[in-house]
Design goal:
Helix 1 packs across helix 3. The protein is mainly α. It folds into 2 domains: about 90 residues, Alpha-Beta Plaits, CATH 3.30.70.2350; about 220 residues, Rhomboid-like (Rhomboid-like fold, Up-down Bundle), CATH 1.20.1540. A 3-stranded antiparallel β-sheet has the order 1-3-2. A two-stranded antiparallel sheet has the order 4-5.
Length: about 325
């Protein structure tokens, strides 16, 4: 994706980006500083787009630019209809998990690859705490303790001679250890946990980062991580049950939520979410929630304990990050 140029107003930037899309040149506009930047995805069409940009800048009122947004929207709807029809006739395995339902080649995703690398390193450094038998332990490794939302040693129930002090999920954060709002995403319990989460992260995250860039991807991950971890800690506090939770799945559901909303309400960015993938992820979320509901516990006892609040909060936050700008755009 290459930056084409900057226009002074959002109306002009959106009109020109829409005109490019109508010419089969994938483009979109974003605010940057005091102006609006137009981006072009296909570098092979960059020279053509540059010539068009120079013409638009000099002749913004040219009649050929009128109704550009309607033309682009109609074109995208036609493409979307063709894709949906093709999905109904062809099972494209490459698009199931490798690219969030969107065909494509290798994607530029340094932030996603860094997150995967950190998660793998943490798994090796905390192996005895997270990958081996998870029977109750009296001692924990220092790395594991440092990455959890709360240090289990500092926050355990202590009887100081009076009444026992309950396990405090927020003890470490209150002491200023604010990194713990993020670091639980790098902790995984078992090989299946880490493999599934990192495949899901690469599948969805690489698509978003390739289109929006590393800075936006980092913002999305941090926002979802902080809020989903805080949501899980709040649930543990309200239930009065200590929880040493971890995993990238809250972030993964956040990125999934972002793509899902974009694919439904923002056709200009041309995200596509495979219906089968959506059904699997929502179905898994529902099953994991039901596991903790009386009446379903025996039926679903084979499912492992899951940080449901982190998943739900992540999904909602990712969806809001995708949807709120659309509302602001319409009101403007």
């Amino acid at each position: 994706m290459r930056q084409l140029g900057t226009l002074p107003t959002e109306i002009a930037a959106r009109k020109f980006a829409a005109w490019l899309v109508a010419q089969r040149i994938e483009a979109h506009a974003e605010q940057e500083g005091s102006g609006f930047v137009v981006w072009v995805r296909d570098e092979d069409k960059l020279p053509q787009a540059r010539d068009a940009f120079a013409h638009f800048r000099d002749h913004p009122d040219d009649p050929k630019y009128q109704n550009a947004e309607k033309s682009a929207e109609a074109l995208l709807k036609e493409d979307e209809a063709r894709r949906r029809q093709a999905q109904g006739n062809v099972v494209e395995m490459r698009g199931r998990w490798g690219s969030a339902g969107m065909p494509g080649a290798q994607r530029r995703a340094p932030v996603v690859k860094l997150l995967i690398g950190i998660s793998a390193l943490v798994a090796m450094l905390t192996w005895s705490d997270t990958m081996e038998d998870r029977a109750p332990r009296k001692e924990f490794g220092e790395v594991y303790r440092a990455l959890l939302f709360v240090d289990p040693v500092a926050a355990r129930v202590i009887n100081d001679g009076d009444a026992p002090r309950p396990f405090d999920m927020w003890a470490s954060v209150r002491r200023g250890e604010v990194w713990r709002l993020i670091t639980p995403i790098f902790i995984h319990y078992g090989l299946m946990h880490i493999v599934f989460n990192l495949l899901m992260l690469y599948s969805f995250g690489s698509v978003v980062e390739d289109r929006r860039g590393p800075q936006f991807m980092l913002f999305l991950v941090l926002a979802v991580a902080v809020l989903s971890n805080a949501g899980q800690a709040l649930e543990a506090t309200l239930r009065g049950m200590p929880s040493l939770f971890g995993g990238m799945s809250g972030v993964c559901y956040g990125v999934f939520g972002y793509i899902f909303i974009k694919s439904r309400f923002d056709l200009r960015e041309r995200y596509v979410m495979n219906p089968g993938t959506t059904a699997i992820l929502i179905g898994w979320l529902v099953l994991c929630i039901l596991r903790d509901v009386p009446g379903f516990q025996d039926m679903l006892s084979a499912l492992p304990p899951v940080a449901n609040s982190a998943h739900v909060v992540g999904l909602v936050v990712g969806g809001l990050i995708a949807y709120v700008p659309l509302v602001v755009r319409k009101t403007a």
